[in-house]
Amino acid sequence: MSREPRVTGPDPHPTLPTQWPRKSGPNPADPATRWAQSVRAVLDEAARTLTEAGVASPRVDAEELLAHALGVRRAALASGTGPEPAALQRFSALVEQRAERVPLQHLTGVAGFRYLELSVGPGVFVPRPETELLTGWAIDRLRDVPAPMVADLCAGSGAIALSIAHEVPAADVYAVELDPMAVAWARRNADQRAGAGDRPITLVEADAADAHVLAEYDGMLDAVVMNPPYVPDDAVVDREVAEHDPPLALYGGPDGLSVVRRLIDRAAHLLQAGGILGIEHADLQGEALPAEVAADGRFADVEDHRDLNDRPRFTTATRR
Ligand SMILES: C[S@@+](CC[C@H](N)C(=O)[O-])C[C@H]1O[C@@H](n2cnc3c(N)ncnc32)[C@H](O)[C@@H]1O
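# S-adenosylmethionine complex -> structure
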């Protein structure tokens, strides 16, 4: 005769497991262990493929691409319940493209820059970590200026301009960009940031060296910041750069300084006395660019700054 249980709900004395988890070492039957093992295996193989293709950071890129294919953050790769076959197919297609030296950020569609995640892809320069230093320098100086007026003269994706708008909420930020494709990316990022609550920036599609551009603010700006094209025309660059960053974003004439020479003059007109100028440059231009700024004659306190690898990276000055 069967007895009705007197209580409902989970059995307070469940059947004991026939096999206890081992104290040391992973339990191969555990889904988390199986996950970790399969993740490690696919990452090892992808990293090998990317190493053979000459990718500079193969393991990190493989992890970023797998996280992208799975729709999770990279940190979440450590835990999970088993990669879906469809996700693994997506991952393998991404690794193939990365091995063809398509930039990681074009594959994931985003680039992290300071506190922002910006949309990027074909037609716009991928923002680089070194530009965060120049941006941080400007932000540190603008924080205590009441309602500062700032221009980014080579906006690209909007990385510098949007970071300043995000971190210096009182700032009025103008971003000038010549390339219509880049302007479209900057607009998308600017709309996204404004939607997230940042103060909207003013985006201008124009040659920033043109005397008519922002002419109504001549002599009024507190800061001009820029990461202009500065690569010498005959310089050899990585495949990701040569094949995917727009040439207009890269090349600056025979010595790399043709565009920035015109922009220094424009900055001198835009800035008020005491206003600050910050310009990124190539590591080989740590003497040439400060010399150009000093030779203009309208700037004082010309200084060059190094990056975390101790390479000359950006020049700053104050409008007399
Ligand atoms: C090196 S990218 C920098 C983009 C962005 N500021 C960043 O740091 O990621 C230079 C940008 O300047 C733009 N550019 C080049 N010449 C310009 C000019 N005369 N006026 C305005 N923008 C220009 C390029 O199209 C490109 O988007």
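# post-check
The pocket of S-adenosylmethionine is lined by residues 125, 127, 131, 154-157, 159-160, 176-179, 182, 207-209, 227-229, 246, 248-249, 259 (CB under 6 Å).
Residues 111-319 form a domain with the Rossmann fold fold (CATH 3.40.50.150).
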